[in-house]
Amino acid sequence: MTQKTILNDTHRALGAKMVDFGGWDMPISYGSQIEEHHAVRRDAGMFDVSHMTVVDLHGARTREFLRHLLANSVDKLKAKGKALYSCMLNEQGGVIDDLIVYYLADDFFRVVVNASTRDKDLAWITKQAAAFEVKVTERPDFAMIAVQGPNARDKVLGLLSEETRAKAAKIGKFVAAEGDGLFIARTGYTGEDGFEIVVPEKDVVALWNTLKDAGVEPAGLGARDTLRLEAGMNLYGQDMDETVSPWEANLGWTIALDEGRDFIGRAALEKQKADGVKRVMVGLVMDEKGVLRHGQRVVTPLGDGEILSGSFSPTLGKSIAFARVPAGASDGLQVDIRGRLVPVRIVKYPFVRDGQSQIDA
Amino acid sequence: MQEIPGDLKFMKSHEWARVEDKGTVTVGISDHAQGLLGDLVYVELPSVGDTVKAGNACAVVESVKAASDVYSPVSGEVVAVNEALPDKPETINEDAYGDGWLFVIKPDKLAEDLDELLDPDAYAELIENEDE
Fold first, then answer.
1. A278-357 domain in CATH 2.40.30.110?
2. Residue boundaries of the structural domains of chain A
3. Which of A30, A153, A277, A298 has its CA 20 to 30 A from that of A159?
4. Which pLDDT belongs to residue A355?
5. pLDDT band at A360 (very low <50, low <70, confident <90, very high)
6. Cβ distance B88 to B52 under 8 Å?
């Protein structure tokens, strides 16, 4: 059955084209996906991300539980409100999901996981939590709006009460503050500054309309996908899944092999590293015309790989992608596009940072 | 949604064909199709001189979202392609039935091929049912 966010009627009234996304009826765009992309890069745009799953963890041993559950170390979270990006792994070191965890109190952490993985995530977290007497509570009563772009923060701050504005204005990146009934985090999935705002469902339509009146452009999942790809951010299910380790998804930076911490999947990760990681994820740019797409074959001198996330980059005006290729492949890569082998080059990503291309033309 | 011009014939796969005064056939994709695809970013056209068969794929249009084959509504020889499109594929979004044309065919068996195509009313009905 298709699920709808509280904003579904609002999207339809705005003329959005709706698509199924992981079982949710979501707006892919409200007109031009490319214009929505540029609005976020140049000014401010907003996304309904209410389909994402908010899970609250309560209990005296919550930090200890998260040390065990997550590949990144929650001990990096020292100040209340601080957030951390991490993978949650199975025993084989495969990625069950990627998520953000917020430290809110010594006995209270909040986790935001993907919509498409909700059921298995909740089952896994609940199962692992039992031994730590941690209470796992999903929060379907929350909606979420991501407001992103160089002017996004100013536009949000202008709508807050004086007291909340003072708090929200001074939080650094990857930190959350609370006020006016909102949970305001300086996080996002676009490579731009901005906030992700968790809001009670009953207030979300009013918040959306207020943001729109303040000049924040509604943007759909289409723009969200090209923005996050340009920003070099992985998409679960496309760039990694349970058969892929963080080493193979260029997420090594999120693995904390801190002394004596026994997290799920650690042994498998250490073994894979010791044996040598056989395949790696790289960024690709195609200078010729055409579009790189998920599933296309990548031909390298060391063997074949495949395109993971691939799209047209509105900022660069050419196609970019992530690909998983044999470790060591560096030159002479080609992509099989409908039987034609087209040269591509490996580049360091993010492809775009703070609105600017990071790629040599 | 753009009005469907009355002189066009359509394939169920959303290509349009216009028989010109000199007997050639201009081909494009419908306004409905461009709307479904979204912002177009790449067009792969046949070459002038290619022989195409009705119902066979002979061009590709790609939007940010997806790639889509374009089928030829009629059989014959490609006598012109829209050379402005590769640099400005968004022309198809802006004017699917005009400046966004793809290629022109000199048909082999026009009458027979036209019988297989939908008139504007039948096509309008098709896309209306699709939307439900």
1. yes
2. 1-274, 278-357
3. A30
4. 86
5. confident
6. no
Q: Which residues of B touch A293 (CB under 8 A)?
A: 67
- Domains of chain B, with CATH numbers? 9-116 (2.40.50.100)
Query: What tens digit of pLDDT does each residue of A150-169 get?
Result: 999 999 999 999 999 999 99
If pLDDT is split at 50, 70 and 90, which confidence band does B131 have?
Answer: low
Superfamily for domain range A1-274? Probable tRNA modification gtpase trme; domain 1 (3.30.1360.120)
Looking at residue B65, what is its pLDDT?
87
Q: What is the pLDDT of residues A37-51, one digit of tens each?
A: 999 999 999 999 999
Query: Closest Cα of chain A to B25: distance in Å?
Result: 27
Interchain pair A17, B38: CB under 8 A? yes
CA distance B32 to chain A (A): 13
With a pLDDT cut of 70, the percent of chain A lying above it is: 100
The residue type of A92 is Q
Q: Which residue of B has its CA nearest to A293?
A: B66
Q: Tell if the CB–CB gap between A290 and B39 is shorter than 8 Å.
A: no
Q: Which of B34, B40, B65 should be substituted to probe chain A, the one whose Cβ sees the most A Cβ atoms within 10 Å? A: B65
Q: Distance between alpha carbon A197 and the CA centroid of its chain, in Å?
A: 15
- Contact residues on chain B for A338, CB-CB shorter than 8 A: 60
Burial A54-80 (b: 16+ CB within 10 A, else e): bbbbbbeebbebbbbbbbbbbeebeee
Q: Is the pLDDT of residue B47 over 80?
A: yes
Closest partner residue to B64 (CB to CB) among A17, A290, A311 is A311
> Nearest-CA residue of chain B relative to A222?
B65
